[in-house]
Structure formats: structure tokens, C-alpha cells
Amino acid sequence: MPAPKRSQSERRNPAVCKAIVIAVQPPEAAEADVHRSLSELKQLLLGLDIAVVAEVVQKRSVRSSPAYLGEGKLRELAALTGGTGEIPRGPDARRADRAAREQAEPLVVVADDELSPGQLRNLQGALGVEVLDRTAVILRVFASRARTREARLEIELARLEYELPRIRDDHTLGDREGGGGRASRGHTNVELAKQRIRDRMAAVRRELEQLEASAAQRRLSRADTFRVALVGYTNAGKSSIMRQLTGSEVLVEDRLFATLGTTVRPLAPPATPAVLVADTVGFIHRLPHALVASFRSTLTEAREAWLLLHVVDAADPAFRAQIRVTEQVLADIGAAETEALLVLNKADRLGREERDALAREHPGALLMSALDRRDGDALRARIDAFFAQHLVEQTVSVPYARRGVLAELRDRLQVVREEYGEEISVTVRGTPEALGKLAARLAGG
Ligand SMILES: Nc1nc2c(ncn2[C@@H]2O[C@H](COP(=O)(O)OP(=O)(O)OP(=O)(O)O)[C@@H](O)[C@H]2O)c(=O)[nH]1
Ligand SMILES: [Mg+2]
């Protein structure tokens, strides 16, 4: 499939692109929440080198009006963008739509919501500039960060799903206006474009399935290995804790969605039996549904972990809402029942009183800083203690002739005691599976 056409904000030198962000605040929403969500949107845009120059919030009971904002607010905004402030109809709509996408002004309007295809078109027509919604922004941030083949495909799939209902033909009528002449040609072109997208989606799904099959094979080979997954809101400090726990050099950055793939490494120093740790993609408020769906295979590590480390930026005033977002996504991917340890990170940014209050609020949680070695050791001790519960102790007799077996098993079992008599009597601790395999080997001769 040819590369999709780039819109203004993607084509131009992004350093000079400016944005006006808009939001509707329904009566039940708290002012602080709306502003927090907007500042998150600004950060996402900053990640795309788009600077926010103005912010328009409308208090309103509905988010479903034809152009998202009410008529008065729409005209006010159009005065800033140079548009007419009216929703164009018929041939005017096509002209306005095209003009908006080819505008000379390096300005976009970004809604902090997922807009319907109609709302997006109407807003664009009335404002005379390109309009993006929150979903499109998140998809672009993901696309700009994807490094692995799998992540690229997952994002492409989510993006195609988003684009499919929004496909319009630049030069002919849209599919809703089908009829004779030019209109039916338009209909055909739109249908063809949609078919191409569907074909590409099928091809991407096939390739993802193949990748998933080999990943499943790898996972099978370590099916009885203890596994931990770091999950949580974006920028909470998951990758920093990954470094602390495993000594690996995963990317740590003060930006949203620094991590987009999954990295799996053993604990360092190694645990016996081995424990693997997975660092995963972060979550965000109103994570587009298409992304959750297409990231399912990436998030398999979280689904199959024995223990989840739910990492939270405890210094962020919004952390309680972020915990709920993470819990919701975990439920969506089928990991709600997995045992989770709440890790209240960035404690170094809190005062003593705040720390004490948090410890009272979340008695089971671990309050820590990824910057503090001792805190890393405390987390490690919690992980070791968790897996210790799953170990059983057993004493076996090993004939001297077979003592080689012991050396081989030292990374799968903890050797508690060795006594040398007529045979070697060894007391070991391990998973029931590993002990079963040892017994079978000894019995098998
Ligand atoms: N002060 C302080 N900063 C931290 C701590 N943990 C992480 N950070 C900083 O927070 C920012 C985000 O850290 P990451 O480890 O990349 O966060 P993440 O959860 O992996 O983020 P994504 O991959 O984007 O979802 C970085 O600038 C880190 O240096 C901490 O305990 N204290
Ligand atoms: Mg990360």
C-alpha cells in the first residue's frame, strides 16, 4: 500500500507547528481533572515538537454536538484560527476540508477527547485549520517511538483502525453523499481506499500472529520460570526500576512513552531459581482502545507474570487516578487477578509527612525511590519473599556416581544442605515442577 498522505502537522517542519488545545468540561467533571488531562495532552504534543499557544475549555453538558464545541465558542475559536465559525455544508464542506489540510498557517487545533469522524470534519471546516483529537496524538507519539518490528506493526494496526472510518476522498464526494456522476466515482474511490486499508490490516495481523507464535515458543521454553512484570502509568519510573533490579541498560527518559516494547532480563544478582523481569509499555488516561487491542501481544508478559510490580509516581498529585487507569487496563488485558505489589516510586520527592501519610493510606505498598540503592534492595527482598512462598523443600539421595546432576541443577534449585554418607543426601528448595523433574531424572537412572 502506498504511504498514507501526510497532513499539515506531519509534513511541515514540526519545530514551528503551534497548537490550540480545546476541551469540553461536563458538569460532573472536576475542573482540576480537566486541566490535568490538558497538561498531559500538552506534554504529548511537546513530544511531537508541537507547542501549545492557547487553551479553550467550554463548560457544557454534552460532548456529542456536531462540531464538539457549542456555536458561540466555535465562532470565538474561529476568530483565532481564521475560519468562518460555521459548519460548512455540501460542496463548501469539501472545499473547506481541503483548504484546512493545505492551510499556510502552521497551526492545528487539538481536542482533548476522541472525536467522531463527523465532529472532526465539521470542526475542521468551521475553523479552517487541521484538527486532531487525543487519540490521533497518542497514536503519533507511539508511532514516533516504536523501535521494534512488533511495536511498529502494533501501532500501524491501531492507526489503520483509527483511520478506516475517517477515510475521505480529497477530490470527490464522501461515501455518505453517494449518487450519480462525480458522486458515484467518489463513492468508489472511498470504498477502494477502505478496501486497501482492510487488506493492509489483514496483512499486519498475519505478520503479528507469526511474531506472536515465535514469542509463544520462547515463553513456553521458560514456562515454569518465575516471572515479574513492571506495569503502570507512563513516566512512573518502570524502566528506572528495571535497571535497578536487573542492571540492564533499558531506556530511561523524562517523557511520556519512552518504552514501547517489552524487555525481559533476569534479576541481578541472579536469584535461584531464576526470576525474569519484564519492563512494559506505560499506560495513560483514555488510552485509545485500538492501542490496547493491538498491544495485547506486547502485554502478554504482564498477563503471564506471577507477580506484577505496579509502579506509581507517588510525587504526581494525580497518582490515585493513575492507579485506577492502570487497574482498568490490566482488567482489559485479562491480568486483573494476578498478584500485584503497589510500588510507590519517587519517594525522594516527598517530605517526611507525605511519606508517612502514604504509608498509612497504602499499608501493603512499598514506598521507594529508584534512585536509592537501599530501596532497590528492599524491593528485591520483597520479590524474593514472594517467590519463596512458591518453593517447597525436599531431601533426595544422590548416588556418588551421579553427583554431576547436582552441579547442573544449582541454577534451578536452592541447595539447603548436603550430607555425605553412603550416598549424598541433599536438601533442596525449588518449584514443585523443578523438584518433580529432579526426581524423574534420579529415578530414570
Ligand atoms: N526523582 C526521581 N525520579 C525518578 C525516579 N524514578 C524515575 N525517575 C525519573 O522519571 C522519569 C521517567 O522514568 P522512566 O523509568 O523512564 O519511567 P517509565 O515508567 O519507564 O516511563 P515510560 O517508559 O515512558 O512509560 C525519568 O526522568 C527518571 O529519571 C525516582 O524514584 N525519583
Ligand atoms: Mg519505560
Find the CATH topology of the largest domain. Rossmann fold
Number of domains: 4
User: What radius of gyration results from the CA coordinates?
Assistant: 27 Å
CATH architecture of the largest domain: 3-Layer(aba) Sandwich
Strand residue content: 15-25%
What compounds sit in this structure? Answer: guanosine-5'-triphosphate, magnesium ion
Distance between the termini: 60 Å
Can you put this structure into words, describing what you see?
With 445 residues, the chain is an alpha/beta fold. The protein folds into 4 domains: 8-145, GTPase HflX, N-terminal domain (Rossmann fold, 3-Layer(aba) Sandwich), CATH 3.40.50; 162-216, no CATH class; 223-388, Rossmann fold; 392-444. The chain is 45% helix and 18% strand. It is built from 16 helices and 13 strands. The strands form 3 sheets. A 6-stranded mixed sheet has the order 6-7-5-8-9-10, with helices on both faces. Bound molecules: guanosine-5'-triphosphate and magnesium ion (MG). Guanosine-5'-triphosphate binds at residues 234-240, 252-254, 256-259, 282, 345-346, 348-349, 369-371.
What is this structure's SSE topology?
Blueprint: H1 8-11, E1 18-25, H2 31-47, E2 51-59, H3 71-81, H4 90-101, E3 107-111, H5 117-127, E4 130-133, H6 134-145, H7 149-163, H8 182-221, E5 226-232, H9 238-246, E6 263-266, E7 275-279, H10 289-294, H11 300-304, E8 307-313, H12 319-332, E9 339-345, H13 352-361, E10 366-367, H14 373-388, E11 392-398, H15 404-409, E12 414-420, E13 424-430, H16 432-444
Parallel strand pairs: 1-2, 1-3, 3-4, 5-7, 5-8, 8-9, 9-10
Antiparallel strand pairs: 6-7, 11-13, 12-13
Helix pairs in contact: 2-6, 4-5, 6-7, 7-8
Bound molecules: guanosine-5'-triphosphate (GTP) and magnesium ion (MG).
